[in-house]
Amino acid sequence: MNLMAKPKFKRRKHERPAEITSAALDAFAENGYTATKVDDVARRAGVSKGLLYLYFKTKEDLFKAVVRNFISPRIDTLIQSVETSDLSAENFLRGPFLVFAKSVPKSPARILLRLMIAEGPKHPDLVSWYWDNVVSKGLGALRSVLARGVSDGEFRQSALLEFPQTLISPVIVSVLWNQLFERHEKLDSDRFIESFINEFIASIKVT
Amino acid sequence: MNLMAKPKFKRRKHERPAEITSAALDAFAENGYTATKVDDVARRAGVSKGLLYLYFKTKEDLFKAVVRNFISPRIDTLIQSVETSDLSAENFLRGPFLVFAKSVPKSPARILLRLMIAEGPKHPDLVSWYWDNVVSKGLGALRSVLARGVSDGEFRQSALLEFPQTLISPVIVSVLWNQLFERHEKLDSDRFIESFINEFIASIKVT
DNA sequence: TCTGTTGCTGACCGTCGGGTCATCTATTAC
DNA sequence: GTAATAGATGACCCGACGGTCAGCAACAGA
Known about the structure:
2 copies of one chain form a homodimer. Chain A has helices at 16-35, 38-44, 49-55, 59-84, 89-103, 109-119, 124-151, 165-181, 189-204. By secondary structure, chain A is an all-alpha fold. The structure holds a DNA duplex.
């Protein structure tokens, strides 16, 4: 018997979920949802498959936890900055919003964006959650910023104002483009997003 | 013996591939790639699984055939219209390009767009084919239209001209948005795309 | 040091679905 | 009419993977 024998495992009830979730994010990023084996996630987290099933009832459950974990914090930050900032609409878009927009393509959210598109239709309840907690909130925030711009006389009326989706288009396109075509022709997402938002503001601004 | 007995099957070597591909498109649209069973595709095509494997070596092979079949014709039409039309850059964007852009969200291409995003990373050779035959051609066409606009004095220099992706952003966003969130908040893709392109032109146009 | 608790393990099970192939039958050639 | 060809069938095979569970080992309390 080796006196220095290491224990086979530590009991770490508390940190397991986070470790597993983050291992899962890596695995999903590499292989997508279906092709990812639960066993592989467990190994990445340095844990047995059985333990994983102690914290997450099913693979789908794990997937949902991953999405919730890595998206919520980001969007909440943005929402809060809309509510608390006293910047003009234009300065809000050029400041906090632009920072947010540029950060997405570099964050884990970029992976989840693709996963949502890929897996969404098979997980309607996840889409609903995503809608309620992320998209409708974000859209609402943008709408209120744009509306304030109009009522303050900064922005003119424009059909585009009905479509706040416009503002996040370059983010979505950058993220997807680079995940698919980076090897063929990389898209400089910072510059793309910045030019796009500049032009957007220019085109709705009262001169 | 019934004299009117129908034969159990007809031999229809030539039409089988197309029938199978189109059944596969339907199936993929409903369930995505992985969740679609080859057996189900075969049944939809009114054919046995064995026969399907006579025309397509593997499921992946079938998937590739579907993508090739339904995307190529659309993009080729667009490319050709760039080459043959003698419209001004602006009128080209407002005419043939707008028609094309609006048609995508209503065509089977909308489904393939999602499938490419979902499955692309697992099928690099398919992405390469898609890049060569669809994206780089389309991008090239847009670049040449925009460049002509500049050299003819219609359009001013603008950072946006470096990113022809801008022009197809609303198409991509519409398509994905409605596939995910139609039940929550439908996006009117015709109006979105049209407003977007209007503003785009306005913002780069020499006045 | 003993004992109870519980976090944790990994061998195991059942099902599902991609892919095969021996066989059949519609069609063609003569 | 008959034989030869090749389109078409569907029962079957088998590896993979989600999910389970009986027991093991770390830790806490006394």
